[in-house]
Write a structure and sequence with these properties.
The protein is of the alpha/beta class and 352 residues long. Helix content is 26%, strand content 27%.
Length: 352
Amino acid sequence: MKVVVVGAGYAGMYAANRIAKKVKTAEITVINPRPDFVERVRLHQQLAGTGAAATPLTSMLRDGITSLVATVDKIGDGSVRLDDGTSLDFDYAFLAVGSTARPMPGTIPVGTWEGAEQARVALAVLPAGSTVAVIGGGATGIETAAEVAEARPDLRVRIVGSSVADGFSQRAYQRVRAGLERLKVNIVDDGVTEVADGVVHLRSGAAFASDLTLWAIVAGVPDLAARSGLQVDADGRALVDEYLRSVDDERLFAVGDCAAVPGARFACALATPQAAHAADTLARLIEGRKPEPYALRYVARAVTLGRNNAVGQFTHPDDTLRRAYVTGRTAVVIKEMASRGGKYGARTGIGA
């Protein structure tokens, strides 16, 4: 039985390794545009020079899984067509291409590998006293601003968002903002209308000069599903049934940010549970057993504020906020749990 996994982020890696563990007869091929597994939630460390976000795929995949560095042009009808014109047939496939960034002109996106690398190079040559602006008041923006401020205290760092850290309960919100302020990050609660000639223009009419402007907003998904003729939602995410299968093709699972799971937001914390459930569903189907519907459950939100501090916000299963939160090293642990979503193995990687 041939299984093709398109994408090697959290969802793709987890799915491939779990299928290899549960379906011994599966011939698994993972297709990814680069030879590395990129931990997207560590890209802020990559650009700040405080950590590495990439690990070779060969060190993360279980024995027997084939990795192929290529770009997929179309998927469906039991076949994956690559951009070089070649094709791979499959009995089952997993679409796990994640989400992406759509940066405003004049900015560098930090939510992609290419953008983070570009930002790392630009940041490294900035002289003391330069201004770095981070656009985006969510987790990506908060972590990027904090990481840059801690790694480069000689720079002036600003974070700009309509309401920075508003995804937390009131006390946790105050803790996040206090943590940013301790790192001397200037918080600007405002929208951005334009970035031109090194100047950031705000919705309020104000403006300020920026030597490096980073776009820290994740929005939309790669258009592979739509390009392949699959039904998608307004964000381009593949429509799925209760078992995470495409509504157009029961042989095709969609997991992670590129799947239109009701109630799901873009979050790495959902990628591995969805991948695990889809892999288990495949195993059940092969064994002639009835699959079980996927149940969406949230646990927590968390952001790091540099290398040794974080704020963790517990949530109800439906993602509504609880009053409970933690800070400091305990929150760092929660951040790790939320981002990884499962056990790591030194040899077998995610989903071991």
